[in-house]
């Protein structure tokens, strides 16, 4: 099944800069059967209860929202800094092609909440690690991290493992 899902992902060469092979999950999201199979497959990788699914902007919102419903959990939005009203906490992180800053509401996660981080793609792990730092600062416990796609050559899985974060992806693209 995961090979069928992988076939629904479009590759856009040289985006957002030359040398990057952008793996575009939006083509998978356009396929209703693909979306349903993706959410089911991700849910099957989760052990134990989850209080919140922390979805990372922007494609992570679509996946995280559906997964939160499937897991009977709340949805915590992790956004680019400056996009949330109210009091927030923020963390800087590095991308494979730059840097950015993520934020969440300071009261979005209660101490002791079990939080599953979700995004479309795992590259260097910088985004997921920044999300984990935010959740931990608020007192949450990381229940794991789940991704549709892993780019293992960029080392994100290793970085998450070194940080003690259980992670899983549905499929990989090598050499990117």
Written description of the protein model:
With 176 residues, the chain is of the alpha/beta class. The chain has a single domain, classed as Rossmann fold (3-Layer(aba) Sandwich), CATH 3.40.50.2020. Helix content is 31%, strand content 35%. The chain has helices at residues 2-7, 26-29, 32-44, 59-71, 126-137, 156-162; strands spanning 10-13, 21-24, 52-56, 74-80, 88-95, 98-105, 114-122, 141-150, 167-172. Strands 5-6-4-3-7-8-9 form a 7-stranded mixed β-sheet, sandwiched between helices. A two-stranded antiparallel ribbon has the order 1-2. Helix 3 (32-44) crosses helix 4. The radius of gyration is 15 Å and the shape is globular. The mean pLDDT is 95. GO terms for molecular function: adenine phosphoribosyltransferase activity.
Short overview:
31% of the residues lie in helices and 35% in strands. The chain has 176 residues and is an alpha/beta fold. α3 packs across α4.
